[in-house]
């Protein structure tokens, strides 16, 4: 009851504080530009190895880098901290079909999210499969048609094109799911369902989602959901009670929260992958924010040159001053050094 | 009267998703489990659909892995890959792969080893049963892989009530519902309409699931998801007879998911979606049924003078919150005990699809949900037998 009241109060406060919640959202104005540079030729590929659409990128505690990408088949590559190719992971794994995200947890386990097989796969640091979530549809069912109308009801242990995964300090697992379902599911560390927010139906209201596309958790176990289609970040507490909505950073394709005593939230207003005319003028930048939603600054813009972004889809922010950024449309990964940090807020 | 009460209890329990065993105070069998299989760095298990051991203790796993694919070749949409057969030694160390690139390796369903140590795989998607000799050479093949696949084959939604893996078929002439007549089934004997699910005289399986042998070496195929029958062949692979059709009566099936034969040549058929095991003689005459087993996804009968029947009431692939235990039974249907539950940890099970019980207290369990084979060591306490 107490929690319910709290939730109502939070909601009420939000509605008062942010008029026009469900309307067209204006991006924050006069946001400071953060100077930055892209480290040239950061990833060093063997001559016969190519990256495809680089959907996810993540570092482990030693600085090694994993890229989950779409080429002829979906592949998972490991690079060392200098960007030198180390090896491929998960050749022929049953859950690799259409990459969406890779993340590394606190124990250096590597998790991939595959929207082709509707599965999450947890590898141990040596590259062996430890756990899987969701289930690949059986081959005997053959190719499936894109469903018409509303998708079937969401199921506790199945996903419908899931997008991302994160963990709270206790190891509970949060999955953003996804393109067909529009929900966030919380599991315990052993993969047992705890609760969810959202459903199979998209919606614009608080607690609803329109393509929850990325997810990150802070040190308190709060969960930040990139509600891409609704152009907002919804912030939930550990029990998936809504705490706040940040709706002035464009369409968040990717969110990342840095570790350490002072955590930052990065959010990418990526330019659409179809590169519609004029989209470069209004999207492509990445925001650096405080966890409470205040915007510290922004950097980058849409474009094909080094130092510009072509539909950012993955950010690793283990070091908040040195990001690893992966792009869909440029088939590449960039290392971005931010030249200054500032506490200026524009909100 | 007592029997009536028991029946009522069973009926009431069955209404709760077959979680019957939890409610009859069946003894828990203490056990331990490991995940003993080790593979080379670039090789991974997918769904462990089948696991079986031979007389030397070698372990065979037929797994759904890789990227099953359908190529749009123009005139024909051809299916490729998606299943592999691995051999491990008795310690779990990888030994070799068998049947690389085999034409019928599409969606692993089961592997069994016969008394002569031949390895038999059942592939649900190619509809085939393939016999390998102990050296890994192919000796015998049943049924035929469909030349072309229909694309797209299915709407995305699965039936919500049972998560039945039965293909919704195009309306059959007889007009029955889901799980009805397979499209390929020709009326047996060529005149009149055969009962739905009874299959063709001969082979032409429709998503077969399992294989077993009697003491004379006759071959019995559980067929399966698409048909609802058992097909019997002599040891040379010549068709003898079919029995069964789709339905709930004695001798009828809804998803024939497993088959085993005891030393007295009784044939035990896991009638999964009817939540029972039916027992037949080798001619297919109905003898009895055990309705107290939940949904039997996997069954195994131990060898030796005193045989036991293991039955997995597996959790469905879309849920970890109920079922998942394995029952140990006497051949007359009495439940000795149970162990395990649905989950992802060791000693938990994720949709068990196969049990090897060559050793009564040392089982190998293949899971679809956890991409894993567990070695289960039962520690039967006094009084559980």
Give a description of the structure.
The complex is a heterodimer of chains A (347) and B (385). Chain A has a domain at 51-137: Thrombin, subunit H (Beta Barrel), CATH 2.40.10.500. In chain A, strands 1-24-23-22 form a 4-stranded antiparallel beta sheet, with no helix packed on it. Chain A is globular and about 50 Å long. Chain A has 2 helices and 24 strands. Chain A has 347 residues and is mostly beta strands. Chain B is mainly beta. Chain B has one domain (2-149, 199-378): TolB, C-terminal domain (Neuraminidase). In chain B, strands 1-28-27-26 form a 4-stranded antiparallel beta sheet, with no helix packed on it. Chain B has a 4-stranded antiparallel beta sheet with strand order 2-3-6-7, with no helix packed on it. A 4-stranded antiparallel beta sheet of chain B has the order 8-9-10-11, with no helix packed on it. The model of chain B is unreliable at 1-19 and 155-190 (pLDDT under 50). At the A-B interface, strand 9 of A face loops of B.
CATH architecture annotation name of chain B: 6 Propeller
Radius of gyration of chain B: 20 Å
Largest interface: A-B, 38 and 46 residues
Rounded mean pLDDT score of chain A: 91
What general form of chain A does the structure show?
globular
Distance between the termini of chain A: 33 Å
Label this structure with key terms.
heterodimer, A: 347 residues, mainly beta, Thrombin, subunit H, four-stranded antiparallel beta sheet, 2 helices, 24 strands, 39% strand, disordered N terminus, B: 385 residues, Neuraminidase, 1 helix, 38% strand
Tell me briefly what this model is.
The complex is a heterodimer of chains A (347) and B (385). With 347 residues, chain A is mainly beta.
Write the layout of secondary structure elements.
The complex is a heterodimer of chains A (347) and B (385).
Chain A: H1 2-17, E1 36-39, E2 53-59, E3 65-70, E4 74-79, E5 85-89, E6 99-104, E7 110-114, E8 119-123, E9 129-134, E10 162-167, E11 173-177, E12 182-187, E13 193-199, E14 212-217, E15 223-227, E16 232-236, E17 242-246, E18 254-257, E19 264-268, H2 279-282, E20 286-290, E21 295-299, E22 312-319, E23 322-327, E24 332-338
Antiparallel strand pairs in A: 1-24, 2-3, 3-4, 4-5, 6-7, 7-8, 8-9, 10-11, 11-12, 12-13, 14-15, 15-16, 16-17, 18-19, 19-20, 20-21, 22-23, 23-24
Chain B: H1 2-14, E1 31-34, E2 47-53, E3 59-64, E4 69-72, E5 77-80, E6 83-88, E7 94-98, E8 108-113, E9 119-123, E10 128-132, E11 138-142, E12 208-213, E13 219-223, E14 229-233, E15 239-243, E16 256-261, E17 267-271, E18 276-280, E19 286-290, E20 296-301, E21 308-313, E22 326-330, E23 335-339, E24 341-342, E25 348-349, E26 352-359, E27 362-367, E28 372-378
Parallel strand pairs in B: 24-25
Antiparallel strand pairs in B: 1-28, 2-3, 3-6, 4-5, 6-7, 8-9, 9-10, 10-11, 12-13, 13-14, 14-15, 16-17, 17-18, 18-19, 20-21, 21-22, 22-23, 26-27, 27-28
């Amino acid at each position: 009851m107490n929690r319910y009241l709290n939730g109502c109060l939070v909601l009420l406060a939000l509605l008062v504080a942010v008029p026009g919640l469900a309307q067209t959202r204006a991006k924050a104005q006069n946001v400071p530009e953060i100077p930055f540079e892209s480290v040239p030729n950061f990833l060093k590929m063997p001559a016969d190895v190519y990256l495809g659409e680089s959907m996810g990128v993540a570092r482990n505690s030693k600085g090694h880098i994993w890229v989950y990408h779409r080429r002829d088949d979906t592949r998972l590559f490991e690079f060392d901290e200098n960007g030198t190719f180390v090896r491929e992971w998960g050749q022929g794994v049953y859950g690799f079909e259409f990459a969406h995200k890779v993340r590394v947890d606190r124990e250096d386990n590597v998790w991939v999210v595959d929207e082709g097989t509707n599965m999450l796969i947890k590898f141990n640091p040596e590259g062996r499969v430890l756990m899987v979530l969701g289930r690949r549809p059986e081959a005997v069912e053959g190719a499936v048609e894109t469903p018409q109308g509303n998708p079937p009801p969401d199921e506790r242990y199945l996903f419908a094109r899931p997008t991302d995964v994160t963990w709270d300090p206790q190891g509970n697992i949060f999955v953003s799911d996804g393109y067909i379902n529009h929900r966030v599911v919380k599991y315990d560390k052993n993969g047992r369902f705890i609760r969810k927010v959202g459903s199979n139906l998209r919606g614009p209201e608080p607690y609803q989602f329109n393509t929850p596309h990325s997810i990150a958790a802070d040190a308190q176990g709060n969960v930040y959901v990139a509600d891409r289609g609704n152009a907002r970040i919804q912030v939930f507490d550990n029990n998936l009670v809504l705490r706040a909505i940040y709706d002035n950073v464009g369409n968040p394709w990717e969110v990342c929260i840095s570790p350490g005593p002072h955590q930052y939230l990065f959010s990418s207003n990526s330019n659409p992958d179809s590169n519609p005319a004029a989209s470069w003028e209004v999207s492509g930048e990445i925001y650096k924010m405080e966890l409470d939603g205040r915007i510290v600054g922004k950097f980058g813009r849409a474009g094909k040159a080094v130092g510009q972004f072509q539909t950012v889809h993955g950010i690793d922010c283990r070091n908040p001053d040195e990001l690893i950024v992966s792009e869909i449309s440029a088939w590449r990964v960039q290392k971005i050094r931010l030249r200054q940090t500032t506490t200026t807020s524009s909100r | 009267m007592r029997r009536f009460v028991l029946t009522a209890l069973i009926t009431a329990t069955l209404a709760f998703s077959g979680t019957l065993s939890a409610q009859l105070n069946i003894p828990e069998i203490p056990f331990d489990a490991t995940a003993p299989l080790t593979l080379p760095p670039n090789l991974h298990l997918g769904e462990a659909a089948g696991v079986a051991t031979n007389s030397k203790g070698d372990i065979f796993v037929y797994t759904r892995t890789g990227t099953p694919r359908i190529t749009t070749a123009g005139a024909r949409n051809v299916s490729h890959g998606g299943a592999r057969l691995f051999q491990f030694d008795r310690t779990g160390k990888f030994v070799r792969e068998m049947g690389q690139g085999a034409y019928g390796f599409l969606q692993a369903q089961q592997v069994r080893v016969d008394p002569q140590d031949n390895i038999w795989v059942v592939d649900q998607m190619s509809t085939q049963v393939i016999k390998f000799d102990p050296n890994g050479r192919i000796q015998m093949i049943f049924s035929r892989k469909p030349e072309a696949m229909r694309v797209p084959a299915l709407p995305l939604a699965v039936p919500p009530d049972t998560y039945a893996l039965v293909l919704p078929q195009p309306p059959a002439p007889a007009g029955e519902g889901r799980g009805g007549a397979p499209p390929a089934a020709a009326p047996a004997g060529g005149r009149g309409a055969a009962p739905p699910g009874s299959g063709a005289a001969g082979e032409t399986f429709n998503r077969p699931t399992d294989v077993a042998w009697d003491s004379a070496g006759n071959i019995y195929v559980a067929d399966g998801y698409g048909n609802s029958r058992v097909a019997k062949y002599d040891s040379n692979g010549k068709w003898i007879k079919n029995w069964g059709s789709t339905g709930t009566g004695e001798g009828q099936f809804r998803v024939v998911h497993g088959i085993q034969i005891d030393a007295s040549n009784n044939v035990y058929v896991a009638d999964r979606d009817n939540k029972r095991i039916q027992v037949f003689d080798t001619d297919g005459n109905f003898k009895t049924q055990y309705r107290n087993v939940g949904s039997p996804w996997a069954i195994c009968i131990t060898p030796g003078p005193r045989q036991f029947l293991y039955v997995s009431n597996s959790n469905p692939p879309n849920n970890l919150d109920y079922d998942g235990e394995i029952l140990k039974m006497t051949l007359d249907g009495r439940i000795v005990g149970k162990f395990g539950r649905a989950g992802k940890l060791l000693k938990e099970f994720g949709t068990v699809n196969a049990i090897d019980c060559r050793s009564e207290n040392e089982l190998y369990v293949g899971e679809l949900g956890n991409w894993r084979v567990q070695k289960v060591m039962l520690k039967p306490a006094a009084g559980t037998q």
